[in-house]
Design brief:
Helix 15 (about 765-775) runs antiparallel to helix 20 (about 905-910), helix 21 (about 915-930) packs across helix 22 (about 950-965) and helix 21 (about 915-930) crosses helix 23. The strands form 7 sheets. Strands 3, 5, 6, 8, 13, 14, 15 and 18 form an 8-stranded antiparallel sheet that branches. Strands 4-7-17-9-10-11-12-16 form an 8-stranded antiparallel sheet, with no helix packed on it. The protein has a 6-stranded antiparallel sheet with strand order 20-19-24-29-26-27, covered by helices on one side. The radius of gyration is 37 Å and the shape is globular. It has 5 domains: about 15-260, Jelly Rolls (Sandwich); about 290-505, Jelly Rolls (Sandwich); about 560-660, no CATH class; about 720-960, no CATH class; about 1010-1240, no CATH class. The chain is built from 32 helices and 33 strands. The chain is an alpha+beta fold.
């Protein structure tokens, strides 16, 4: 400022270099420092963050003691501050007992939240390294309390006794409202004498109290930490001042009352800055027939509108609607097209010109938070801000009554506000609706934002539509609103797709360069030649398989075939699973069991592991039967079962024959090709994850063209449902593990949405994986950054390294988390080297992830477990798998990177570069396995010691993936168009040895849990009517605290509903009906570790769930207005109805035997199955129940409400009243019987 009555001007602030150092004096008559903000001048003090100079300060005529051009400084908050170094020991800024202090400032508060403690100026408590956290020597602050700004003084003391409170805060009992212009504040105090404390506001001494820590005479904390203006605690938002500052003084005396009274002189009353403008925004011309919706992020607060001096942020994106109805905002993406977070609060502005007849009409507005509506320039109605709630204890909100009979009621905690508007002319009027979505502690969602009108003289409300739209009136009813919400969802998805793909195109040039480099590498490292065969084939896969296997007469069998079969089917699997993992390639103890000769030779003990003919003298059997823990084999896990030991004993007794594999042992004759009905069902399930519709099947069967299978494959590969079908596999493989309640072990963010977007956009797999590993976007709103999270894990990046090695490199490192792998060549250092690359810095092994030294003292035998990495030892970011993968960290790699100095990008590039042949082959093997039922390498996640059955074909598939720019759909097409894929599923490749794995046929596969349940909904035509996956449906928590995962429409979208509190109030009954079926067939939402294979063994729950579960009973019911009911009503004959049911559920027509069984119950009463129209009684919907949420779930009624919902779910939907009960029940029995055919859950 340029003060008239202050002659001392010590500080000037500039944008570039901050401020000049204050004059430092010891004389009592002058301040220790006094900052006035005037001309620019280079200084040693540093600005940090958003600081703006040359803003108007206190000026005449309101403040006559200041110059007409007086300037102040504005702080944005968020850690913006000025930093001044303390001169050192015994400086003028050090205050001890007996020292007097006065702190004063002129302040203009723009924002102050309830509970904020915004710093004006303070010494210490900066968070700087080398200083205690409790080192506040003094501080002048503003505290938000009861809607007022209270003056606060804070300091810390040196504790005299242990556990003694050493923070002391004095707060004024009076204050002023923020946003009321410039105010002068001051505190005065003599340290050690609490009764001397004074607080001043606008030249008046106001009472106060020691409200924290109480009064004290203890010595204040003193050190050489910095003086900060505008913030503290490393720039914490809640401690950062937002507004203007001027004339800040630090005095080493308690200024007398006359002086402090004279500091403030104002002419007139304080300005009422909160008198927000109510003028309708001027928006210019708007497109006819549309509601223009713009979204403006980064508003100052969710509980107020902008002040006159503030500017509305520019629109971040826009969307056009057909009515004043909106329940969502577009998704936010970063510049790679990865989901990011909105900077909440977000202003949602809807505007259109609307035709209303003359008259006085009622406007109804519904909004979750603050909103206001204008009609024809008149501010008609407003709603209140969204407010938080206590955890669990909020009263149950009653159900809102509809505004008129038959109308849609307002949803839970959705505000309703009404107003009157007078329309005088018959012409379109401008309508504008502003609503604030979300906030710093709330999800940016608008709720069901609605603007409706009841015309004068009418009873019904209609949702407002724009003029020029040739649509019928939009009644405010459930049916009309829900139909429009579905349309909004569709158009919003299209906008999100366009926005995402446009943003992602920023990286296209880089990935084009990457793929050109891959083509160059392929030119130097060509694929194996596709072999020529005796049998004509156009598919390379069939050529490779035909070349590797010559058909034989399977009826001819050698004399040794039975014994060979016994060895390879019973003995060798036991040796492989229990012994060869250690005594195979790794030769533990000098013993190898990779062949009979090596086993007879023995190991370091000198004893033969196998003595043919004498199992009791064979060291293998002696160790297997030993009860001595130091002798027993295997050394870890459960002992071998008696049944398995007896198999090995009999084999040794018979001479321990280890025959060579003979072709007669393996079925090499190719299976027959499947028919069209089986093919279309298999193709649909393998691509889009659901059975084909009745029309799909009939059209395909009637098509006589020779290439119809290839055309169907191409059609399905282009279907957006392709992404849905792959999601469950990716979520398991990458251990995506979000939670509804509280984070548990290895909980992640919902990076499912990153995967889903990538699959829908058909991102090349090298790009998709690279961007996943870069962990970008929002961790909680669906970005790949969610992959970085691993709750309650002492080394999250080590956990991610295990997942990545497992998923993309075929390297199993689970054991390496705590020690070197006993059954693999990987070490703990290998795992933490990858983790350090993820972390972009050296990492050390936490003590909790280290095998304690005492473990090795418990046993005299040499432990299989080795620890070569010392606890606390730093591991640098290093790539350990050059030899295994072929990818090397060299100069050629740098050419493929955008930032060569980023270890995380280096890791992503090393994994996905074309030189890494392992990556392309692992992906190819995983895709192959999904379609054929067994991998060329088994298991897909662990390649060590597991050779490929067809190495040349696998190399060709990997390089074909690279050649097609890593497009997995192209590789899927190659596999699906092969004769192998289209053969009968009678193969036994999954459990075979590599030598036995001939792929003469695909393996039989059961449908995944998601495919079963999704196909159930598809076949019945019913929508997935379940709750949104959230316990916070009203959006009153940040996504990092209580997230919402949306309302599922495919089964992969469910998340864990585990409820360790065992409270019905925390259940989602409709969702749990679906989850029950999913769980029975191997689905799990608690993915604490990566998983390639789910549990697929049959269990008693599966037939029980298919027969009697809540979901089965509901979906097989001819429910009111359901597709199954319509099918029965519209059927022309029992045979046509039966054909339709079979085509819908099992993709074929019934056999003669099936028709004979099922036609009888359908034919009985078929002609008279309909209830006469005048006797139809439409079912009435049950009364709505209050919403149970996280915020009210502890209330007594919450359990009762959710139990009532569970009861309704169990009862199922009401039956269709058009069908007579007896015939309908027989019809439902037929549907139930078809669903329970075994083929419904098996891939044909």
């Amino acid at each position: 400022m340029n003060s008239i009555h202050h002659c001392l001007c010590v500080i000037a602030i500039s944008v570039a270099s901050s401020i000049v150092a204050p004059a430092i004096v010891r004389a009592d008559e002058e301040p220790a420092a006094f900052w006035e903000f005037g001309p620019e001048e280079a200084t040693p003090i540093r600005p940090v963050g958003g600081i703006h100079r040359d803003v108007p300060g206190p000026r005449p005529p309101m403040f006559p003691d200041f110059s007409v051009n007086n300037s102040a400084v504005n702080f944005d908050g968020k850690g913006s501050r000025f930093v001044f170094d303390d001169p050192g020991d015994d400086s003028p800024f050090d205050f001890d007992n007996g020292d007097e202090i006065t702190l004063e400032a002129w302040i203009n508060i723009r924002d102050l939240n309830e509970g904020d403690h915004s710093y004006i100026i303070g010494k210490g408590r900066t968070g700087n390294p080398g200083f205690s956290r409790d080192n506040q020597n003094w501080a002048l602050r503003i505290r938000g309390l009861q809607g007022e700004a209270r003056v606060s003084f804070l300091f810390a003391t040196v504790p005299v006794q242990p556990q003694q409170r050493n923070w002391h805060r004095y707060t004024s009992l009076q204050g002023f409202r923020p946003r009321t212009g410039w105010h002068h504040i001051a505190v005065a105090y003599r340290f050690g004498e609490p009764k001397t404390m004074q607080t001043w506001i606008d030249g008046k001494k106001v009472p106060g109290t020691w409200d924290a820590g109480g009064p004290t005479s203890n010595t204040p904390a003193i050190d050489n930490d910095q003086i900060w203006i505008g913030s503290a605690l490393s720039g914490a938002a809640g401690n950062s001042f937002r507004g203007g500052l001027d004339s800040i003084g630090v005095h080493r005396v308690m200024l007398d009352e006359k002086t402090l009274q004279s500091r403030f002189r104002r002419v007139g009353k304080a300005p009422d800055m909160e008198s927000i403008s109510t003028e309708m925004p001027k928006l210019g011309d708007l497109e006819s027939g549309k509601v223009t919706v713009t979204f403006h992020e980064g508003l100052p607060n969710h509980d107020r509108w902008l002040y006159p001096e503030e500017t509305l942020p520019p629109s971040a994106t826009a969307w056009s609607g057909r009515s004043f109805l909106l329940d969502q905002i577009p998704l936010k993406y970063d510049d790679w097209g990865i989901r990011a977070s909105w900077k909440a609060p977000v202003l949602v502005r809807m505007a259109a010109d609307v035709s209303l007849p003359p008259g006085q009409h009622t406007i109804l507005m519904r909004a979750r938070g603050m909103a206001r509506a204008w009609v024809d320039g008149q501010l008609v109605t407003m709603s209140k801000p969204l407010v938080g709630a206590p955890h669990g204890e909020e009263p149950i909100t009653p159900v809102s009554p509809p505004p008129a009979p038959g109308h849609r009621p307002a949803w839970h905690r959705c505000q309703e506000a009404t107003g009157q508007v007078e329309i005088t002319a018959s012409k379109p009027v401008r309508v504008v609706l502003d609503a604030i979505a979300g906030g710093k502690r709330f999800r940016p969602e608008p709720g069901e934002l609605t603007l409706a009108v009841r015309l004068e003289g009418e009873e019904a409300f209609s949702v407002l539509r724009p003029a020029g739209l040739s649509e019928s009136p939009f009644p405010l009813t459930d049916t009309a609103v829900e139909n429009e919400l579905r349309r909004i969802e569709s158009t919003m998805t299209a906008l999100n797709d366009t926005t995402r793909r446009q943003a992602a195109s920023n990286q296209d040039a880089y990935w084009n360069k990457r793929h050109q480099a891959a083509h160059d590498w392929l030119a130097a490292n060509p694929s194996p030649a596709v072999p020529s065969t005796d049998q004509p084939t156009t598919n390379p896969i069939d050529a490779f398989l035909q070349a590797s296997t010559q058909p034989v007469d399977s009826t001819q069998e050698s004399p040794t075939a039975p014994k060979q079969h016994q060895f390879f089917t019973t003995v060798l699997p036991i040796l492989k699973s229990e012994c060869i993992r250690c005594h195979g390639e790794k030769d533990k103890g000098g013993l190898s069991l990779g062949s009979r000769d090596l086993a007879v030779l023995g190991g370091d003990s000198g004893e033969p592991a196998i003595k043919p003919g004498d199992p009791h003298a064979s060291e293998l059997i002696i160790r297997l039967r030993s009860e001595d823990d130091d002798m027993r084999m295997p050394p870890t896990g459960k002992p071998l079962s008696e049944e398995k030991i007896m198999v090995l004993e009999k084999w040794i007794t018979d001479g321990a024959k280890w025959p060579e594999m003979e072709s007669q042992m393996v079925a090499t004759e190719s299976a027959a090709l499947i028919g069209d009905t089986a093919f279309i069902r298999r193709a649909f399930l393998d691509t889009v994850g659901v059975v084909p519709s009745e029309n799909d099947v009939t059209e395909f069967l009637s098509d006589t063209s020779a290439d119809k299978r290839e055309r169907l494959i191409d059609q399905l590969l282009d279907d957006p449902r392709w992404a849905d079908n792959w999601m469950g596999y990716w979520l398991d493989m990458l251990a995506e593990n979000p939670t509804l309640i509280n984070a548990s072990l290895n909980s992640t963010g919902p990076f499912r949405w990153y995967l889903y977007d990538s699959l829908r956009d058909n991102k090349p797999i090298d790009r998709m994986v690279s961007e996943l590993l870069m962990m970008r976007g929002s961790a909680h709103d669906g970005g790949s950054a969610g992959f970085a999270l691993a709750a309650q894990n002492d080394s999250p990046f080590a956990a991610k390294s295990h997942i990545v090695g497992n998923a993309f490199l075929g390297i199993e490192m689970q054991c390496a988390r705590c020690h070197d792998s006993p059954y693999h060549s990987t070490s703990q250092r290998d795992l933490y080297s990858l983790a350090a690359m993820f972390a972009r810095k050296p990492l050390s092994v936490p003590k909790s992830s280290t095998v304690p030294a005492g473990f090795f003292k418990k046993s005299d035998r040499n432990s299989l477990i080795k620890v070569t990495l010392k606890p606390g030892e730093k591991v640098t970011p290093t790539w350990p798998f050059a030899e295994v993968t072929g990818a090397k960290d060299d100069k050629s790699l740098r050419a493929l990177m955008q930032r060569a100095d980023d270890p995380r990008e280096k890791l992503a590039t090393l994994i996905t570069a074309p030189q890494n042949q392992r990556f392309a082959q692992v992906i190819a093997n995983r895709i192959w396995r999904r379609y054929i039922g067994a991998g060329i390498v088994e298991p897909p996640q662990d390649w060590e010691g597991n050779p490929a059955s067809h190495p040349e074909m696998l190399e060709w598939l990997g390089k074909e993936l690279v050649a097609k720019d890593y497009d997995i759909k192209q590789l899927a097409r190659v596999i699906m168009t092969s004769q192998l894929y289209q053969r009968e599923a009678i193969g036994q490749n999954r459990d075979a040895t590599p030598e036995q794995r001939k792929f003469n046929a695909p393996d039989r596969r059961r449908l995944t849990a998601e495919q079963i349940a999704d196909s159930f909904f598809q076949a019945t035509g019913r929508e997935m009517d379940v709750e949104p996956m959230t316990l916070d449906p009203d959006g009153r928590a940040a996504t990092s605290t209580r997230n919402s995962y949306g309302k599922p429409n495919r089964c992969w979208m469910f998340v864990s509903n585990s409820n360790e509190r065992d409270r019905p109030s925390l259940t989602l009954p409709r969702a749990e009906a679906v989850i029950e079926m999913l769980t029975a067939f191997g689905w799990t939402a608690d993915r604490q570790a990566p998983k390639t294979d789910r549990e697929t063994e049959p269990n008693v729950l599966q037939p029980a769930v298919m027969a009697n579960s809540t979901l089965t009973i509901s979906l097989t019911k001819a429910a009111d207005a359901s597709p199954l009911a319509d099918l029965a009503v519209e059927a022309q004959s029992p045979q046509q109805l039966l054909d339709s049911l079979f085509l819908r559920f099992v993709s074929r027509r019934p056999t003669a035997a099936e028709s004979e069984i099922f036609l009888a119950p359908l034919s009985e009463g078929f002609a008279d199955r309909m209830v006469p129209e005048d006797q139809i009684v439409l079912p009435q919907a049950p009364p709505r129940l209050p919403q149970v949420t996280w915020w009210n779930h502890v209330r007594n009624d919450a359990n009762t409400i959710q139990q009532e919902i569970a009861s309704r779910v169990l009862q199922g939907p009401p039956a269709d009243p058009r069908l007579k009960t007896a015939w309908r029940q027989r019809y439902e029995d037929v549907v139930w019987s078809i669903v329970n055919l075994r083929e419904f859950v098996w891939m044909p």
